[in-house]
Known about the structure:
- By secondary structure, the chain is of the alpha+beta class.
- It has four domains: about 5-165, Jelly Rolls (Sandwich), CATH 2.60.120; about 180-295, Immunoglobulin-like; about 300-450, no CATH class; about 460-605, no CATH class.
Amino acid sequence: MVSLGSVWRFLDEGSxxxxxxxxxxxxxxxxxxxxAQLGYGESDETTTLSYGPDDNERFPTTYFRAEFEEASPxxxxxxxxxxxxxxxxxxxxxxxxxxxxxxxxxDTSYLSYAADNSQEDEFDVLSLxxxxxxxxxxxxxxEVHQVNAGSSDVSFDLEFTANRAPESYEGIxxxxxxxxxxxxxxxxxxxxxxxxxxxxxxxxxxxxxHSTDTVTTSVVNVDISxxxxxxxxxxxxxxxxxTAVIHYTTDGSWPSPQSPQVEGPVTINTTTVIRARAFAxxxxxxxxxxxxxxxxxxxxEIPIISVAIDPEIFFGETxxxxxxxxxxxxxxxxxxxxxxxxxxxxxVNAGAKIGGENIWRxxxxxxxxxxxxxxGDDAIAYQLFPDQRLASFSRFGLRNGGDNWDDAxxxxxxxxxxxxxxxxxxxxxxxxxxxxxxxxxxxxxNFRSSLDPDYxxxxxxxDPDNYDHxxxxxxxxxxxxxxxxxxFTDEYLALEAYAAANDLNDPLHYAFMESRMDMDSFIDFxxxxxxxxxxxxxxxxxxxxxxxxxxxxxxxxxxxxNQTSSLLDNFKKDFGLFGDLMANVTFKTRLAQxxxxxxxxTFHPDRIADIVDEANTEVLSxxxxxxxxxxxxxxxxxxxxxxE
Length: 644
């Protein structure tokens, strides 16, 4: 039908095409044509599109058309359209709209913008039915919209596929099913009857365990909860369902009917994660119970996190999110958090992704933890960071110290302690923790908060649905471009355009910039030596709100290689907004004054030494074991090297 890389007719002139452009009979003979991928600002486009004469006023919309032949659509099955569209798109088949992505509802025109660019580097998938095609010539037409006039790139490609039933095909059965339930499939049992299945059996027949509805088996209870013990523990796994059989695992994997069956007490004599699940005839499997038992472990002076996660999903050669650094995949896990006094304030189900721009290259990976309803928990109601009043979290990070991982793991850690109360930047909080994965000690991690909607709502009383949080980074390629974490880019791009177009030494124009920017926050950000792909900033979307800057980390800070006079020169040369502001005497004076003040207070050697000593003392009892574990993986060479 239509394959990736096909030749498309396209209109990239920013003109009004008229209302009938998507119709099969529309004459597109004067449109340009070229093979996909089509776009600009990307490294992998085959055909380069035009965005017009002005970098700051790029055409909002580009149009694409292609024809394909289909003699007998009635014989097709599994008709599917896969679309790559940066930023938003509306798709038409034979003149009828069949799908839209990241676009507001209602009519669109050549001046319409996309609602967001949250999935610009991924394919959207649209399922269609054979009766939406015509015998003979069919036309697929797509309008791709930029998110704003300054958006840096456009990309487009499309694939249209289907299966064809054999000529002798005759429908012998059909089924209608109601709303689906997560992790429960619907299929035929051994007696050829439709049933619900709570256990996946890829590549093999459906399991014998099934039910005629979505009722699940009772949860498994444990008579001795997980925790810290100095003697063997004998636990009983029980369920209220008299017909149920309990299966359990000790390697972090999800229990299945093939896992060991509970036939009596289970003895725990080494640090172990128990996961148990009940299975009963005619019912779906029960919820998974997870308990962590720490046996004769050395005392920890910092919080302990126990992670239970399927080893195949996390460490497997094929699926392994951790082993293979599958950054886009999220692995479900159970996480238990213990205070140093061994109290358990919370245990949640969540998901983990590999984090960081490039610090995943180290043997000990950073993890981004997210609570989502699909895992069973939406948030943690607990004050995780002593210096922060925020007591509700849905995201946080388990960092590896960043680029300081193979040195001291402290530069990243001391960032909030240096800055909070001294500098006008938002910053992620920190505390050290030790992590166990499936009962195995995984050593020191930097536990970091996340600047997510919960943070902005609590710390700044901002409507979580009404703010812009932007970043410059390697969003879709090796180039540093502007990306969206929340909201839109239009106000910020307008600010950059104003600064570039006007003489900011004029008090009137500088006053306008001051009305849109928290200047102290911007100036304080300039001290960030790792700034090119670490520029984050935000504002509430309301009249009079100002942009504020974020310092994500300082893992490349406090380094002699970064303490050079060229830092400000780099900012002036490569950071357009900073270079424009440096034309103003008032700004330069304020920059010098704050710099001098921070040198004599915020960054005073005695203050920094105290903060470093405090952070070091917190983890010192764990450092020797941490070094020993990662030494052969190019970790910290020795205590002496770390001290230096």
